[in-house]
Amino acid sequence: MFGEFVKLVAALNFYSKYNLRASLFILDSTLVFFENIITPLTQAYAYKHSNGKGMPYIY
């Protein structure tokens, strides 16, 4: 969970010279970060505030 953020910061520091490769790597890390952390949090929030009926998963 926290490892993705560390990888993102490491990518910013290490790949700052190589713009294209860095941006692709950072984009990938950011997407993984949002997939694994932000989306479950929003889903849990939506479920909690829907009176137990749940909500369809939004991609």
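the 2nd protein, sequnce then structure:
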Amino acid sequence: MPEQRDILTASPEEISRLAFAEGPMKPKVDAAVRAAPAGA
């Protein structure tokens, strides 16, 4: 899924700006941000 690759390569700031970050995907987005290595 392209969305998953985008999450893995986006910065937390970019992720937080995505529209779905405030929708049903928010828990998964938050988890991805926490799990992402610093500077990823």
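The chain has a mean pLDDT of 66. Residues 2-35 form one domain.
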